[in-house]
Amino acid sequence: MSDDLAVWDGYRPLDDRQAGSTCEELYERYLEEEASGPIVYLLMSYGTAEEVSEYAAAPAREHGLVCFDPQGECLRP
């Protein structure tokens, strides 16, 4: 079992719904075939997901990147 976290460079969506749509579009455009572009998709072990997610979200925030939790369908603060 795993949890995921999507981090991308771009404008911060206005709400969780818009973030979900943006995440899906970026994933389909950049990660399904080439694995390149403005998005990183992290797969995390379920037991450590919360800790890893917070660890990844903090520097992303500092660098103006967007963090989205696909399972929770919500933007990370």
What does this structure look like?
The chain is an alpha+beta fold and 77 residues long. The protein has one domain. Helix content is 39%, strand content 26%. A 4-stranded antiparallel beta sheet has the order 2-1-3-4, sandwiched between helices. Strand 3 and strand 4 form a beta hairpin. The longest helix is centred in the first third of the chain and has 16 residues, at 16-31. The mean pLDDT is 84.
Itemize the secondary structure elements and their pairings.
Layout: E1 2-8, H1 16-31, E2 39-45, H2 49-62, E3 66-69, E4 74-75
Antiparallel strand pairs: 1-2, 1-3, 3-4
Could you spell the SSE succession in H and E letters? Answer: EHEHEE
Helix content: 25-40%
Q: Which strand order does the major sheet show? A: 2-1-3-4
Protein structure class: alpha+beta
Number of strands: 4
Count helical runs. Answer: 2
* C-alpha-based Rg, rounded: 12 Å
Shape: globular
How many structural units, i.e. domains? 1
Mean pLDDT: 84
The share of residues in extended strands comes to: 25-35%
List low-confidence stretches. none
* Largest sheet features: 4 strands, antiparallel
End-to-end gap: 24 Å
State the main characteristics.
77 residues; alpha+beta; 4-stranded antiparallel beta sheet
Give a summary of the structure in a few sentences.
The protein is an alpha+beta fold and 77 residues long. 39% of the residues lie in helices and 26% in strands.
